[in-house]
Amino acid sequence: MSEEPLKAPSHKPDTVSLCADPTAASYTDSSDDETSPREKTQVNSKGSSDFCVKNIKQAEFGRREIEIAEQDMSALISLRKRAQGEKPLAGAKVVGCTHITAQTAVLIETLVALGAQCRWTACNIYSTQNEVAAALAEIGVAVFAWKGESEDDFWWCIDRCVNTEGWQANMILDDGGDLTHWVYKKYPSVFKKVQGIVEESVTGVHRLYQLSKAGKLCVPAMNVNDSVTKQKFDNLYCCRESILDGLKRTTDVMFGGKQVVVCGYGEVGKGCCSALKALGAIVCVTEIDPICALQACMDGFKVVKLNEVVRHMDMVITCTGNKNVVTREQLDRMKNGCIVCNMGHSNTEIDVASLRTPELTWERVRSQVDHIIWPDGKRVILLAEGRLLNLSCSTVPSFVLSITATTQALALIELYNAPEGRYRQDVYLLPKKMDEYVASLHLPNFDAHLTELSDEQAKYMGLNKNGPFKPNYYRYQHHSTQSE
């Protein structure tokens, strides 16, 4: 985690006209100006007002959304039923910062069933499902989030979760590191007393390792992102399905024959490329890592430099976790109608700030769809203002999120109940045995039956019959896109 000053990813809410700022781009928008949730006084049916959501009256609608998600998250529900008797999180005060969707609501309600008290906020200003936030507030979870927050709202919501009288967090569940960063910077005394941090994104994990390297991580942290059940399932299969959903809903684009460049061939990039290729797109890849580049080549993708192909592309998709992967100079060279979007966690990959200049006109054509118009009439289609496409513009499959959520719940239980000294002030990977347990909980959905080793086979392989079945250094690889 760097020592840079705190700043939320810059953005602008739908209802703000940028015309008042002489240095900003002109911007046309037809949405009505509504009262900020911060200015409303709302109470749930129990009389509590310890929340801030768009509209508490949407709670019943949100409850139905959560019930739909539960249907495809049976493993998480199974964990809830198995463990709610012993309450392994009794006394845990969890402050969370994730996407607030029906799927994460199933996780939050599982944590509550296991004994935790929860306060929650959003890690992305566009991904919150307002009705789901209302449903959580109705059952007594202190939620501070709504879709379309401003930069100031974003940090205000995080602060309201952490800074409350008579309640102090002892566990952090984060997605992206913003909450961890805020507590570390603003509430160091709280940070030092936290028993553990669970982080699920590439960006957040990177910031934790930075903090650890600087000798400033004073609590144990669990890197859930690099657990097998997160990286090889959520990052790969979730993105493989949701990339198409996000693009179709926003642009109605036809993929067959389109020239697409995917920046980054990690698990997210692999999933995106696989889906796009399957629908007939002509896909090329940019990479900095020779191993990932070689994988892309073996999967049938041409590895290129963005500068050399950008003028010919119909779509540019970033999946790197880096910053300024797509620059203003490259945006200037794109052809008319090029679609630009980001599948990484942070909105740093596309240099959106460089597009807010007087000579460019911003035209909001749909929710999360902006046409950036150059003086010669050229238009580039920017989705979600460079934020995470799938959660900003569509939904993601409940089943694959069940895998991640079960992993997060087990990581919290592990850190909260660990005897003193088991985990030092460092970043840890989830134990392999726990990864295997998460996977086993999901197999009944497919009526899948595992083969059991005989005593002789177990001895020959040097394994315990009950696992773990692979050493920690084993790399679970997906097969080439042709066979998926």
From TrEMBL:
Binding residues for substrate: 101, 175, 200, 230, 234
Bias-annotated ranges (Basic and acidic residues):
1-14
- State the source organism's domain of life: Eukaryota
Q: Name one GO biological process term.
A: S-adenosylmethionine cycle
Q: What keyword terms does UniProt attach to this protein?
A: NAD, One-carbon metabolism
Q: Tell me the segments the record calls region Disordered.
A: 1-46
S-adenosyl-L-homocysteine hydrolase NAD binding domain location: 235-396
Reply yes or no: does the keyword Aminoacyl-tRNA synthetase apply: no
Q: Which cofactor does it need?
A: NAD(+)
* Cofactor descriptive note: Binds 1 NAD(+) per subunit.
| InterPro entries (alphabetical) | Adenosylhomocyst_ase-like_sf, Adenosylhomocysteinase-like, Ado_hCys_hydrolase_NAD-bd, NAD(P)-bd_dom_sf, S-Ado-L-homoCys_hydrolase_CS
| Keyword NAD carried by entry | yes
Gene Ontology cellular-component annotations? cytosol
Under the heading PROSITE patterns, the entry gives:
ADOHCYASE_1, ADOHCYASE_2
Q: Which residues bind NAD(+)?
A: 266-271, 287, 390
UniProt similarity note: Belongs to the adenosylhomocysteinase family.
Q: Which NCBIfam families does the UniProt entry name for this protein?
A: ahcY (TIGR00936), PRK05476.2-3 (NF004005)
- What name does UniProt use for this protein? S-adenosyl-L-homocysteine hydrolase NAD binding domain-containing protein
Protein source organism: Pygocentrus nattereri (Red-bellied piranha)
Q: Which gene encodes it?
A: AHCYL1
